[in-house]
């Protein structure tokens, strides 16, 4: 079997080169499904260990090192890469102590080419766009996806189009999209509204949509899990903790971990903890009803990256939580900013949304969900320079 597109709900399949964002039969989200039986026979940990440190494309990328698990059908020369990934996994004993656990690692996805984890998805998405013969790519964004799309569009000679909310886009992110030369459209609406507009745009014009509803984005983001676990010498941590907005990242983590076990790269799954801002918490609310009920919310939080009230990947995130016996937690903006300040003061630094990770870990330890002797890998999703205004205001006490 070659890789195919497959509806996660009704299992209907589509060829990999069809331009499609949702199942034509039932409207369900699509997965890129690979032939795991073949992969089980053909890749091992050694396949990926042998590529560490290479200077040659595409395996010098921390995404394409795992090419067989992401897009086995690609020729190397079809890949558009900066290259991305190869981010540090920091051992942070002081922060572990603050959170109340023995062993904490922070994987810093702000160390990607445009300063966020989005680059790992964008290399997959833009590569697919070119494969499909597209010349224009678009997204709605709270700022990081647009920065990444703008860069990868420029890098590959495509036109980038980004829709951003008129207010509350962090200045670092806005400046990137402008600098990289994307067509920037500031809409007087929030992220959720902009996403609807991009969907309309891509349905009517010849424009390829690169929001995380696009499954090729999520394939690239799986590499965060591959790389973190390889960095731990293939030892599986007890917990993976990640902030949740549109829920693309957490969805991709679930798929990555499930596939790793199917292929035999790991023998058990870590538990996934998704942390939401209290003012943008539709997943958390649904979690409290054991996913019986789901209602979009009007989002409001200082962590503008995750100011999302109706996450498109909700069903995939629920699946990831089911696969990993996962949990959802929420944190206040105050807790987020305190945790961010502590990460910053270590000399590591991150943007506000990433503060949710550490704040969430502390809360889960206090709630008895994460045990003090468990090993935790937390995700820092964006660079400290993304949102300088909030950092300065926090320290000036003017937030
Ligand atoms: N952290 C940062 C720094 C982000 O930019 C985002 C999402 C998230 C966490 C949440 O990830 O959506 O996969 O659950 N930013 C998107 C954007 C929405 O447009 O840049 P998610």
Small molecules (ligands, ions, cofactors) in the structure = ligand F0G
Low-confidence stretches: none
Number of strands: 13
Element-level helix/strand string = EEEHHHEHEHEHEHEHEHHEHEHHEHHEH
Helix content: 40-55%
Distance between the termini: 55 Å
Give the helix/strand class: alpha/beta
Shape: globular
**Residue-averaged pLDDT, rounded?**
97
Radius of gyration: 19 Å
SSE arrangement:
Elements: E1 4-7, E2 13-14, E3 30-33, H1 36-42, H2 45-49, H3 67-70, E4 89-91, H4 93-99, E5 103-108, H5 118-131, E6 136-141, H6 144-156, E7 159-165, H7 171-179, E8 183-187, H8 191-204, E9 208-209, H9 215-221, H10 223-231, E10 239-243, H11 248-263, E11 271-277, H12 282-288, H13 314-324, E12 327-331, H14 333-345, H15 352-366, E13 375-380, H16 388-396
Parallel strand pairs: 5-13, 6-7, 6-9, 7-8, 10-11, 10-13, 11-12
Antiparallel strand pairs: 1-2, 1-3, 4-5
Helix pairs in contact: 5-6, 5-9, 6-7, 9-11, 10-11, 11-13, 14-15
The structure holds ligand F0G.
